[in-house]
Fold each of these.
Amino acid sequence: MTGAISTLIPYAELDPALAEQLLDRAFGPNRHGRTAYLIRGDAEYLPALSFAVLDAEDYLVGTIQAFPVALADPEGRAHPMIMVGPVAVLPERQDQGYGRALMAAQASALDPQAPLPQVLIGDAPYYGRFGFTEAPRGWHCPGPWDPARLLIRGANPAVLPREGMLGPWRG
Ligand SMILES: CC(C)(COP(=O)(O)OP(=O)(O)OC[C@H]1O[C@@H](n2cnc3c(N)ncnc32)[C@H](O)[C@@H]1OP(=O)(O)O)[C@@H](O)C(=O)NCCC(=O)NCCS
């Protein structure tokens, strides 16, 4: 992060209004209609996997969250997964390593004993560096999506269903 001191804190410690403003800046005000929002539905975010990064002046620069989701396979079985994101860094503070720091914080908070597969919608050239690869082409979303941007990460992606519909985890 260009040598400056920054601080990672739990997302839950943020003022929710400030966090919402940051997401509006990073994604634009119409973000609530995005397919990622449809996948996670009204689920609460996972606090143990959600973080914020503050700069040396304690100014909020970026956030990462995670949500419980599931892939429903053609036989009706639900495969629980973690949806990574939104990941957001203020436009004027991008390309300074904050996104990488947020991704690393979340990855190290994942349970190494029983990690669930992770899914996200994002740019493969960016998320590929964190181990994400394209999801099987038989995976569907409840809204429009670009298959090249539907990405997964997991210990053994080969064991995941080849077909299914993503949606909230109704466990
Ligand atoms: C995507 C995002 C979170 C990255 O955070 P960041 O702090 O800017 O990224 P970092 O500083 O960690 O990494 C910068 C590197 O990633 C690259 N990069 C950044 N965004 C990229 C993208 N969309 N596609 C490909 N590469 C990208 C930069 O070119 C830079 O490369 P380098 O290390 O080779 O110089 C941030 O740009 C952002 O908030 N974008 C708007 C919201 C968004 O699209 N979020 C992702 C979907 S959930």
Amino acid sequence: MLLELKNIHAGYNGREILRGLPLNINAGEIVCIIGPNGAGKSTVLKVISGFLYPKKGDIIFKNKDITAMESYKRMAHGIGYFLQGGEVFNDMSIYENLEMGGANIKKSVFKETVEDTLNLFPQLKNKLNKRAGLLSGGEKQMLALGIVLMAKPRLLLLDEPSAGLAPGLVKVIMEKIVEINRSYGTAILLVEQKIGQALKVASRGYLLKNGEVVFEGLPEDIRRAITKRAVHA
Ligand SMILES: Nc1ncnc2c1ncn2[C@@H]1O[C@H](COP(=O)(O)OP(=O)(O)OP(=O)(O)O)[C@@H](O)[C@H]1O
Ligand SMILES: [Mg+2]
């Protein structure tokens, strides 16, 4: 197992949001977290990336307890985090943005990592000297994902990578996610509002409600569980 969350309790300002969360991901898997607004999906990713420390529970990554580890060390350890909304350095060029993402990888693999990243997002290739702030929304989202990939993560946490994108681009970004997973064997934890799209690419998923896992299983079982819940709501 690559990542295991055991009985995670976490929240903000004394208010508990996650109530005893279990979650696990195997190496090379794509797993999705589905749930209504405010269910705690982003909070799960913050806990895994170290942006929020749990009040209780353990986080095991690559057989090591990382519960108390700082977020920058988790990144160096192989956890990549795409924040909700995506983040780029607007005043820097696209190339400089990628440099920032790869700041901690070995110098010897830097060049090939830039090449791999640009092959994945070819539309960025001929704009390397352009300021990131001048990119379109879709291009920024791709660059934000590229920055995270430059750190060569073993586990990629994606918080609504398709948010705000036109339907055509949503499809593209989902294809990229599958391509990253297939090409590098990167495990992916995907949080998505677009349930249909997420269940199409994931091999397993968690249904989260009020900070609790209310269902866990294969995509088709999750689809059925959602329909059943909607009927009984
Ligand atoms: N920084 C924060 N400070 C205080 N409360 C917060 C903070 N971030 C989130 N919350 C609260 O925690 C709860 C869960 O939020 P979270 O962002 O994890 O939900 P989500 O499932 O990602 O929702 P969405 O689908 O809208 O992105 C919400 O009630 C939210 O208001
Ligand atoms: Mg969220």
